[in-house]
Amino acid sequence: MAAAARREPSTMSWFGGVQQQPSGPTQLESAKIEMEMMTDLFNRMASVCHRKCITPKHADGAELNVGEMSCVDRCVGKYLEAHSKVGEVLKKVEDQMKAQAAAQQQIASKLGGS
Questions:
Q1: Do residues 51 and 68 lie in contact, with contact meaning Cβ atoms separated by under 8 Å?
Q2: Contact 18, 12 (CB under 8 A)
């Protein structure tokens, strides 16, 4: 009975079936945050790569030359690779912090239960 009282509320999934409702931000809020972050990433990447690779003569919408296209391609690739590596490092740090918090909680429960 106690286990049933702690269960998260469930909702119908968009793809059928039942899924657990997250206890943190709602799925819609999470999706909005992720969309804002991806938009920011794109805008920053476009700005940096445009400033680095595109000559002022193309500001009027003229076609890029081969060198500029190659520069933009490399710039975007490097930007996304760096973003991915930073994400991996942050994920490792987050996992380590969670493990440390769990270990501290376990120690605290042992000390409190003695």
A1: no
A2: yes
Could you report the per-residue pLDDT of 50-89, keeping only the tens digit for each? 999 988 876 667 788 899 999 999 999 999 999 999 999 9
Per-position DSSP letters for 60-101, written without gaps between them: TSPPPPHHHHHHHHHHHHHHHHHHHHHHHHHHHHHHHHHHHH
pLDDT value of residue 57: 75
3-class DSSP state for residue 11? strand
CA 46 – CA 44 distance, rounded (Å): 5
For residue 11, what are the β-bridge partners? Answer: 19
Best CA proximity match to 85, nearest among 95, 73, 77, 97:
77
Residue range 35-52, pLDDT digits in tens: 999 999 999 999 999 999
Q: Give CA–CA dist 78/21, Å, rounded.
A: 37
User: Per-residue pLDDT averaged across 98-113, rounded?
Assistant: 87
Tell me the CA distances in angstroms from 102 to 22, 23, 96, 114, one per residue in order: 20, 18, 10, 18
